[in-house]
Write a structure and sequence with these properties.
With 316 residues, the protein is of the alpha/beta class. The protein has eleven helices and eleven strands. α2 runs parallel beside α3, α4 packs antiparallel against α5 and α7 crosses α8. 47% of the residues are buried. Bound molecules: manganese (II) ion. The site of manganese (II) ion has 6 residues, from loops.
Amino acid sequence: MTSNSPKEARERIHSAHRILVTSHIRPDGDAVGSLLGLGLALLDAEKDVQMVLADGVPRALRYLKSSEKIRKKPNGNFDTIISVDCSGMDRIGEILDGYPKPDLNIDHHITNLNFAQINLVDIEAPSTAEMLASYIPQWDLSISQPAGEALLTGMITDTLGFRTSNMRPQTLNTAASLMKLGVNLPALYTKALHERSFEAVRYWGAGLNHIEMECQVVWTTLSDEDRKISNYPGKDDADLVNLLASIEEAHIAVIFIEQGDDTIKVSWRSKPGYDVSKVAAQFDGGGHKAASGASIEGALDEVKKRVIAATQVLTE
Ligand SMILES: [Mn+2]
């Protein structure tokens, strides 16, 4: 029998000894922040904890204290496995091969598959980190300053600085409670959303060179070549899609990132009234109404044509 009771989650956590906490591949601020926030609270409760991310911590988030404790592979056995910010088992990557299904699944994606024994899924929550910032004290665990910084980073990044349409008063109350613990909101905001590397801005320049707009959909591509000429180290979009989404005339923004292996990573952002998770689902992707993604096999030009045609159905 599966359950969705936070009380049962609390009991499971308190009776646990060896805990694995994990999150999704290509981790974002909410994945790393939620993982660290919960992982550090469990370590403080003297649990034996391993925090594992298949792809490790992205360079841009390594300023988070204790993020160096996050490993790429689990070691040994666990009596409790916790997944945070993951809609499905496939999003965790290969690290759970040979391990049982997660005991606890804490997430806010509308596409969550309730794959664990206890599933705490709140699709109204703007971030998993916000859910955890409420659950951790409810579960009689404490939030240290580094854990609070991690959680607030998850909240800030998934809401793009408290400005996504799913923002609610509770989000600001939760952020305020973390500030009262001594967490420096302005400093985290600057780190998470404002600062970027010289290479990232050059990479933006390459992408902005071939931006296009039609039927209120704006898009651009980031090729392997763009990455090479700008010396950008990641295979992501350096958040360029959010800049495209700021274009006044566009209702939907799409970005295509060549992955160097015949797959194209696609990210969508939309203004209220457009559900891009439906388009992403057509390409085996997922996400939220306002922000979704997919990995699609094929050549850049061909994938671009198919995706733009499917996306423009929403704005027609
Ligand atoms: Mn999230």
